[in-house]
Amino acid sequence: MSSNQVMPFHLAIPVDDLTAARRFYGDLMGCAEGRSSDQWVDWDFYGHQLVTHVAPERLLPPASNPVDGHAVPVPHFGVVLKMDDWKLLAERLEKAEIDFVIKPYIRFQGQPGEQATMFFNDPAGNALEFKGFANMDNLFAK
C-alpha cells in the first residue's frame, strides 16, 4: 500500500503498572497523555495513538531473532526518526541510564538500508526499537 498521506497507527499494549508507564512514556519519552482511566492511558506516541492497558497476565516472556549479529527482541514496536532526532533521543536515554537491550549503533552500514537503531524495554518489558535514517527515501530500499 502506498499513500501520500501518512495515517497514524493505533497500538494497545499490556502493562502491569500505570504509574510506571506514566513515568516512562510521559516523563522519559516525552509523550503527551490523552484520555485515561484507572485501567488504561492513551499516549501521543510521535503522532500515533499508543494505549497502555493494565493487563499483567498478557505480558510475554522475551523472545528474539538474530539480525546483524544481535538478538533482536520479538515482538517490538517503535518509530522511525530523522537521524538528528534519533541522536537526540539516544543521548537522552543514555543520560537517563536506560538499560539497552541493544545499544545505539549503525546497522547495515554502506548498504541501501543503512540505519541507526536501538532497542530497550518499557517498565512492563515491552520491547521498543527506534530507528534513524539520514535519508528517509531508504526506508524500504532493498
Automatic annotation (TrEMBL):
InterPro entries: Glyas_Bleomycin-R_OHBP_Dase (IPR029068), Glyas_Fos-R_dOase_dom (IPR004360), VOC_core (IPR037523). Residues 7-133 form the VOC domain. PANTHER family: PTHR39434, VOC DOMAIN-CONTAINING PROTEIN. This is Glyoxalase. The lineage of its organism: Bacteria, Pseudomonadati, Pseudomonadota, Gammaproteobacteria, Alteromonadales.
